[in-house]
Design a protein that fits this description.
- This protein is an alpha/beta fold and 230 residues long.
- Helices cover 30% and strands 18% of the residues.
- The longest helix is centred in the N-terminal third of the chain and has 10 residues.
- The structure holds D-xylitol-5-phosphate and zinc ion.
- The site of D-xylitol-5-phosphate (DX5) has 22 residues, from strand 2, strand 3, strand 8 and helix 7.
Length: 230
């Protein structure tokens, strides 16, 4: 039987504040996933980031709703932030909502209408995020910003963890920072480590995703604190 879920802390009821650290489990040891998820949450992480890849939108395959459900079953109180790097994210809104996802981020470059997707995501009980790749014209995202709870700026070309941070995307962050309200969040994803995190925070990001900078280190607590700037 599924554990009874207590109320999970929501990113989206609180105003933007101290930066939140979101380990991307893409770099976790998948054979020890429960242990890895617990370890980062017990060592200071605020939420978990799940990277979903379809082999079309990005040249890699990763995880689906069943894995999300497994994490949810074992960590009923952890906030799960799902990043959909897929061509057709509409098809997976209900499966991920049922699998316990809290936030569902789609890409502005996907094949579907972002505003219709945002409505469906909210109707299914999740908050809605909008992501942009490093080389996409910000003009595509700009008119949509007010319709989403979270704006995700990709600081690497999506598909793999372990790539180097692309500093030019901080311009996007600065523009978003001028536009968002107190209840919207700006998330940076890709190549975030204690050094690059400093610039992200200075330019307005309040959710920092990191895979290799956390899971490839022995000291998860130290890595998480350093990314947060402590
Ligand atoms: C990349 C994913 C990222 C990735 C980050 O396509 O969206 O979340 O896991 O990995 P690092 O932090 O190693 O760059
Ligand atoms: Zn991601």
């Amino acid at each position: 039987m599924m554990p009874t879920s207590t109320r999970r802390p929501s990113l989206f009821t609180a105003e933007r504040g101290a930066p939140l650290v979101a380990p991307s489990i893409l770099s976790a040891d998948f054979a020890r996933l429960e242990e890895e998820c617990r370890a980062v949450m017990e060592r200071g992480a605020d939420l978990l980031h799940l990277d979903v890849m379809d082999g079309h939108f990005v040249p890699n395959l990763s995880m689906g709703p069943a894995l999300c459900q497994g994490v949810r079953n074992h960590l009923p109180d952890t906030y799960l932030d799902v990043h959909m790097m897929v061509t057709n994210p509409g098809q997976f809104i209900e499966p991920f909502a049922k699998a316990g996802a809290d936030n569902y981020t789609i890409h502005v470059e996907c094949d579907e209408d972002p505003l219709e997707l945002a409505a469906s995501i909210r109707a299914s009980g999740m908050s809605a995020g909008l992501a942009i790749k490093p080389d996409t014209d910000f003009a595509l995202m700009e008119p949509l910003v007010s319709h989403f709870d979270l704006l995700l700026v990709m600081s690497v070309y999506p598909g793999f963890s372990g790539q180097s941070f692309i500093p030019e995307v901080l311009e996007t962050t600065r523009r978003l920072h001028e536009m968002v309200g107190p209840n919207q969040h700006i998330e940076m994803d890709g190549g975030v480590d204690p050094q690059t995190a400093t610039g992200c925070i200075a330019d307005g990001c309040d959710v920092l995703v990191a895979a290799s900078a956390i899971f490839k280190h022995d000291d998860y607590a130290g890595a998480i604190a350093a990314i947060r700037g402590n």
